[in-house]
Amino acid sequence: MKLEELKEGTLYVISDTFFRKVKDPYLMKNHGNGLRPNCFVFCDSEEKIPWVIPLTTKVDKFDYNRSVIDKKIKNANSQNEIDELNKKLMGFKKSSVGGNDCYILFMDMFPVNEKYIIRPYMVNGYPFQFDDTTTNEIINQAKIVHKMLINGYLFIKTQPDIKRIKSIILNEKK
To answer: pTM score, two decimals?
Structure first.
């Protein structure tokens, strides 16, 4: 899809070709249905590169992670420790798609060439679209996390190598 065709707040499907090309072991895996995880797309305003944020339905896992971090915040000994734990919470956000709970995984966002965005993610035959308020919340959080990732912040040890992926994307655009 062309960059100008992408709509804020819509989820999209990324081509398997992209994942085979970049070969990053920490990108979300295809679970056998021929479609990659659905992704929220926003554009890096400086370089005009789409960045995609995967979603997961592993709600229990991230509810647990959230509760662990919340408990650590309550027991923290310093404001620096609290601030660092709050940064970790920026990595994911609970939401809902088509009536099903999910988590938006900001910590796993990565750049992509728009040619690998193959189509909108459909729910009941229609492209899924977050409401305006949720879309704005996601974009604001995405911009913060994007900056953190670009500056080398590590949420988890198994994050995609965004610098390498970005290099591949920029080389394709030449």
So the answer is: 0.91
Cα 57 to Cα 12, 26, 86, 87, 114: the distances in Å are 16, 17, 22, 22, 25
CA atoms within 13 A on the CB side of 34: 1
Whether the predicted pLDDT of 34 surpasses 80 = no
pLDDT tens digits, one per residue of 75-107: 999 999 999 999 999 999 999 998 899 999 999
∠102-108-111 over CA atoms, to 5°?
120
DSSP string, 60-101: HHHHHHHHHHHHHHHT-SSHHHHHHHHHHHTT-EEEEETTEE
Q: Of 148, 124, 100, 117, which Cα lies nearest the Cα of 52?
A: 117
Q: What is the pLDDT of residues 54-81, one digit of tens each?
A: 999 899 999 999 999 999 999 999 999 9
DSSP assignment of the chain, as one string? --GGG--TTBEEEEPHHHHHHH--TTSPPP-SSS-PPEEEEEEETTTTEEEEEEEE--HHHHHHHHHHHHHHHHT-SSHHHHHHHHHHHTT-EEEEETTEEEEE-GGG-EE--GGGEEEEPEETTEE-B--HHHHHHHHHHHHHHHHHHHTT--SSTT---HHHHHHHHHHHH-
